[in-house]
Every structure is written in structure tokens, then in C-alpha cells.
Amino acid sequence: MSRAAVVAGLGSWVPPTVVSNAELAAQLDTSDEWIRTRTGIRQRHVIEPGSATGDLAVAAGRRALASAGVDGADLVVLATSTPDQPCPATAPEVASRLGLTGVGAFDVAAVCTGFVYALATAAGLLATGVGDSALVIGADTFSTILDPADRTTRAIFGDGAGAVLLRAGEPGELGALNGFVLGSDGTRRELIEVPAGGSRQRSTGRPADPADTYFAMQGKPVFAEAVAMMASSIRTTTERMGWSVAQIDHFVLHQANARILAAVAQRLEVPLERFVSNIERVGNTVAASIPLAMADAAREGRLGAGQRVVLAGFGGGLTWGSTALTWPDLKTV
Fold it and tell me: What domains, with CATH codes, occur in the chain?
């Protein structure tokens, strides 16, 4: 029988500094009501000056290892679009700080779909015997790349990290990840981007327009694409699992916007109550979004052993993806 990646540990971390809607309203032309009605967000966490994505990744990774009752892993895969620096990747330092020097460690960049892509990558490596365990972390600090004067993006995004410890096992086990779907559409990359800072802009030899150094997103088309692609990938994943959408106990989607979650639920014709949501407390944490939502739901006792769960994300690239598992009996930390 082929090997599968089995979820054996789960951890999360958000920085202690909380920024409420009221605090944003005092700085920008916005209000608590405006933010809540459009996004469902009441607050978000942001890192302190001098902190970085790697710091959050280490904290979440440590908790995932403790949850699994182990002190190591053969691989570290970090999903992030806000690495500590452009070069080198952040994962090797994260691994070293966790005491995992010498293991395979690398970053995966797929924006808000990053965690699903990282899960699929780690699952493939475990399936082929490259390792017997993998620490998969989603971590982002989008507060560092937002225009301070942009009320829309500053209202939406927060910082955080979530992680799972995967071990090699069998496809039929509780916690085994199966039914992976990954997709992309590079013709629409301009919908979600940071225009400057990469080789294309740098090769011109001209200084970047300051506005192009910040994250930018075209809200309306992103909303439509997110709903369509997540709903489609969820249907494909459930078909591959031999499940119907109606048989899914919980959907843990990328926490982009409360209205997107509601629209996906409507398109799938399933009750919104089955959709895990913590966006009200943490905002859109990009690659950290799905594991943070899983950790919160598990800690609250909402996810129980034997329940059918689907994970799905959508992000820049454009990228999207999903996977499914029957929830294992996990210790939460």
C-alpha cells in the first residue's frame, strides 16, 4: 500500500499585539461598522518592530511538535510570501532554531494557497520515502508589506502562523491527507501582487515607485475567482474521496473574508455552520490562515475524531487548492 501523510500534531501562534477596528478608524478614513460589514473582521494581530515571519513560524512549529509528542522531523516546509529576507529561504533558519539542523528545509510561495501547496509537497516527499515526518508551517506577516494609508488592505490582513506535524502512514488512517487538488492561472497574476522588488522591476535599473512596493489587490474580481475556484476544487476533492459535499462535517477554508465563506457555502448548498471561521479575531493571515483556523477549531472542541474535513485555499498567482482528511484524535497545545 502506498504511504500517505498523516496529521499527527497541530500548533499555532499569533503575536500579542492586537489592532482593533477602532484603532484603525482613528488612523484612517474608516469605521468599525465599515470593516465588519464588508469583511467580518473585528481585530487582527501584528508583529512588533524587529520581529519577522520566522519568529512566528518557530513558535507555531514548536507547538505542533509538542502536540505530536515529538522533538524532531525529517523535513521542514514553510509556506510564506513574506520571508525574513529575499535570500536565503526562511525555512532553514526556522529548522535550526527548532533544533532540527541538517534536515531538508525550504520555502513554498503560493500566497494564501501556500499552506495547501506545502501540504501537497510534503505529502509527496513522505510518499516517496524522502522522509518519515515533515513539519509543515504556514506563516506570514503581511503587516510589513501593506501601504499604511490603504484602509482596505490594512483592515483585512493580520500576522500569524500555524503548523502541522505530518508522519508517514496509510491512506485509510484517521488524519491521512488525500484527494489533493492544485490549480493556477498565471494570466490573472495582476489581481493580487506586490509589483516591485523582484527581478522584473529591478532589471529595469529604475527605482521602484514607492506605491509599487506595497501589496495590492483588486477586490471584486478576486472575490468572484475565490468563490468559484474554492467551490470547484472542493467538489473535485470530495469526488476523489468518494464523498458527497453534503457528507462533509467541516470545511476549513482560507479566511479571506466572511462574505467569501458565505458565498462558497451557498454555491455548495451546505449550511454555513459547517464552515470553520476565526476571521473575526485574526483577519486574513494568508498562508497561516488554514492551520490557524484548524488549531482554533480543534482547541474549541469543534473538530472531533472521525469527522470528515475538507481544507481549501485561494490566493495570488492565481492559485487554488484543496485536500481532505478524516479528523484524527489530536492533542491540542
Answer: 4-169 (3.40.47.10), 178-326 (3.40.47.10)
